[in-house]
Amino acid sequence: MSAKAVVTGIGVATPNGLGVDDFWAATRVGKNAIERVTRFDPEQYPSRLAGEIRGFEAEKHLPSRLIPQTDRMTRLALVAADCAFEDAGVQPGDIPEFDMGVVTASTSGGFEFGQNELKKLWSQGSQYVSAYQSFAWFYAVNSGQISIRNGMRGPSGVVVSDHAGGLDAIAQARRQIRKGSKLIFSGGFDASICPWGWVAQIAGGRLSTSDDPDRAYLPFDAAAGGYVPGEGGALLILEDERTARERGADNVYGEIAGYGATFDPKPGSGREPGLRRAIEVALADAGVEAGDVDVVFADAAGTPRLDREEADAITAVFGPSGVPVTAPKTMIGRLYSGAAPVDVVTALLAIREGLVPPTTNVELSPAYDIDLVVGQPRPTSIRTALVLARGYGGYNSAVVVRATD
Amino acid sequence: MSTQFTIDDLKRILLEGAGAEEGVDLDGDILDTDFEELGYESLALLETGSRIEREFGIALDDDVFTDNRTPRALVAAINETLSALVPQA
Amino acid sequence: MGRRVVITGVGVLAPGGIGTKNFWSLLSEGRTATRGITFFDPSQFRSQVAAEVDFAPELHGLTPQEIRRMDRAAQFGVVAAREALADSGLDLAGFDPHRTGVTIGSAVGATTGLDDEYRIVSDDGRLDLVDHTYAPQHLYNYFVPSSFSAEVAWAVGAEGPATVVSTGCTSGLDSVGHAVELIREGTADVMITGATDAPISPITMACFDAIKATTPRNDDPEHASRPFDGTRNGFVLGEGSAVFVLEELESARRRGAHIYAEIAGYASRCNAFHMTGLRPDGREMSEAINVAMAEARMNPESIDYINAHGSGTKQNDRHETAAFKLSLGDHAYRTPVSSIKSMVGHSLGAIGSIEIAASVLAMEHHVVPPTANLHTPDPECDLDYVPLHAREHRTDAVLTVGSGFGGFQSAMVLARPERSAA
User: Fold this and answer.
1) pLDDT tens across B19-28, in order?
2) Where is the signal peptide, in residue numbers (chain B) (predicted)?
3) B26-65: per-residue pLDDT in tens?
4) What is the SS3 assignment for B5?
């Protein structure tokens, strides 16, 4: 029997809340945090809205030695890691170093840091490039910096699967717990709201061009026209359930009970997309039937083709309107590698309170046979939640989260 | 006009390029304290060195930080490099 | 004992050696592929040497569309994956596509493509608010390197779990290690796995210049990469890719596949010390080696050859020499150790997979590749580094290791399946 991987600590930083309490207070009532971009002047671009984290002052939380060598996404991740440790009631020294690791996801790395160094290189010359460019922008930086700051020397890693990567990282963390690690940090952070990152995201062709924060990101709505990018993410502490109980962990939020991942067939093949299969694999892995699932946190791409694929997969597994579906990311935008870990956090908090947070702003299109929770939060008993995440190119990942008691 | 490199220049550049270690007061008596004790490892010193090179228009030896382990020694070494610069006609 | 994982196909694209045959010729003859940079004018850089691949994608079956949308590293990966699949003789049509997965390692993703596109949209850095009207659609594929695994999955028809593993310079080992776990746990039956990087671009040269990690030996590029030599002064940047077909042992045997090696053990640890620095004692790498050997149920005496990280920086070569001694004890002194980076340079995330390829080819031929350019040993590096010339040597089990920025230290044990059955 494999060890049960439970979540015992959470660090979260999103446009609608820093820390678990603020985040949940905003999310449970559907507080919209999408606004016009302020980090640069977006006027000249076709997309001008984002979910930005306001009021985050890294200098108040981190040693000044770390500031010049870190991108914004790393600063957010380091602060979230501190919060997660505190939430779990673990001091970095409590557990042997080789028994603790860090597995994170990334989408675009420290893109803003990279932008600044590219600018120096081409406008001033190679000798102006920072010594920290050798690692501050790369995809592995958050795992490395978190391990260094907290003395974690055990199995670690970094995965990149666009918006699906956050679930892949959590699954890899669960593997390490099952193989004997005592504590693994997992999740993802991205923060590429800078001109160079903005242009790359626009190039993907899926961003909303609306200027109305309440009508910009509308998954499963007849008016769906793309998504709004956001910044931030979440880090979770995973522990083996028995060792967590033995140390008297204050918070056992729930179990990472199942996982499945697939990749879509090559475009043009005519074959069914892989999402349904990913869901089925995750349910089987968790040992649950479709009827046991109390709520689905949708990927909610916000483009008609992808919404159609997702609604079809959900309906195929659960039947027409067979399960409540929600997409709280409508409040904050899509956080890239951070999106799915935030949804896992939301799922755990939803289980704790017995409340499905709403999909904001959306009026469900009659074209979709799903029971989308819109407008108001829905009180209901939740023991098992399914979190879905999809990435550009065809990545599909699904995680089953379950109450532990 | 000959340019001087001062301890205040060094402190400013260290702070800009590498910040300050918790518990270390750069305004204290640091002239003879080893950079490592001040919390600056090789990477921070490389960043500091390239900032000094750019600002003062000089080229430092690869070994400048291994040969000069304290602020006092480094300031002296940089001033020596500066004074060796022959003004262009 | 659970499911065991073997390598049944190899594809390599390395400087001086595209294809496994050419790659092995280069290594076994001890030739070097390092040279003065030709991709751009390197005159402003401290280090002006690299190990470049002479690569014409259209000669490897890539269509104009594919060439346009893929960064160079993605192109490498697709070509290597196709070679590996052909080499394996596996017909994936006979498999459930959902049980075939892809993991590709890369340290710096599409950094070369990003560097090129940045120049255009920013007008060489003049614009802060870069101009989106000059950005091609494939810029998003460069933004997110998961496009690499997507391209490989499309190329081979895989529809199982896919991801990019990006742990800096150990990515090439960690990607394959990740794939091994997916087969062992039963999630996948076949994995197409390996790594690719194409980092030889101005921004990469500049960042390694800034930390003096790359060698300034510009007057002698053919002999610039000098692992374990007393005169070494930095690594030589390289590029390339290696991709493998992994299968479950029994299923590979049933179809009569040629089995290169079993991936018998793998582990990764962190130094939790410094983003670029190493603790001199080599403890984390040693821990990774010990766990990998334990997983393979092998003791140090079973290791016939160590394929070293051997980057040619002052600190690395001493660090891993210390780690080998910690883990293998006296046997470290009796085991040939070599670094192929002396010949093909350091291709960051790709090199770990390229070194796995070198390791399994050493097992195929019972020949250990040399460490080129090793003339004056560093007294602190006192193992048998197989200087200059390849050596005939019975090789049934290989330890290959990697070390990278972020503090990652990884180790993998490759062995003949009949030997490690124990």
Assistant:
1) 999 889 999 8
2) none
3) 998 999 999 999 999 999 999 999 999 999 999 999 889 9
4) coil
Domain of residue C205 covers 5-110+145-415
High-pLDDT (> 90) share of chain A, %: 97
Contact C153 A394 (CB under 8 A): yes
Q: Could you give the CA distance from residue A368 to residue A374 in angstroms, rounded to a whole number?
A: 14
Residue C53 lies inside a defined structural domain of this protein = yes
Residue B46, chain A, CB below 8 Å: the answer is yes
Q: Which of C169, C178, C319, C381 is the catalytic position?
A: C169
Helices (DSSP H) in C93-145: which residue ranges?
Answer: 111-121, 139-143
Q: Which residue's entry shows tokens 């594809």?
A: C11
C139 located within any domain: no
- B53 and chain A in contact, CB less than 8 A: yes
Set of chain C residues whose Cβ sits within 8 Å of the Cβ of B62? 212
Single out the catalytic residue among C60, C178, C319, C346.
Answer: C346
C93 confidence band (pLDDT: 50, 70, 90): confident
Q: Given 3.30.70.20, 3.40.50.720, 1.10.1200.10, 2.40.30.10, which CATH number is that of B7-83?
A: 1.10.1200.10
Q: What is the pLDDT of residues A159-169, one digit of tens each?
A: 999 999 999 99
Domain boundaries, chain A: 5-246, 258-402
Quick check: is C118 in a domain?
no
Strands C35-36 and C237-238: unpaired
In this prediction, residue A2 carries a pLDDT of 67
Q: Which CATH number characterizes residue C58's domain?
A: 3.40.47.10
A190 half-sphere exposure, CB direction, 13 A CA radius: 36
Q: Number of folded domains in chain C?
A: 1
**Token pair in block for residue C395:** 């090789």
Q: Using only the alpha carbons of chain A, give its radius of gyration.
A: 20
The residue with greater pLDDT, A295 or B86, is: A295
**Across the interface, which of C210, C212, C277 has its CB nearest the CB of B41?**
C277
B neighbours by CB contacts (3+ pairs under 8 Å): A, C
Interface check for B58 against chain A (CB to CB < 8 A): the answer is no
Dist CA A133 CA B45 (whole Å): 15
Q: At C102, which helix (H) or strand (E)?
A: strand C100-105
In this complex, which chains have at least 3 CB pairs below 8 Å with chain C?
A, B
Instruction: Report residue A233: phi and psi, to 5°.
Output: 160, -165
Fold of A5-246: Peroxisomal Thiolase; Chain A, domain 1 (3.40.47)
Best B36, B40, B43, B53 member to test C by mutation, with max C CBs in 10 Å, is B43
For tokens 């990472």, what's the residue?
A256
Q: What is the dihedral of CA B64, B70, B76, B78, to 10 degrees?
A: 40
Residues B81, B58: contact at Cβ < 8 Å?
Answer: yes
Looking at the domain that runs over A258-402, which CATH code has it been given? 3.40.47.10
Question: Cβ(C148)–Cβ(C196) under 8 Å?
Answer: yes
Within-domain flag for C330: yes
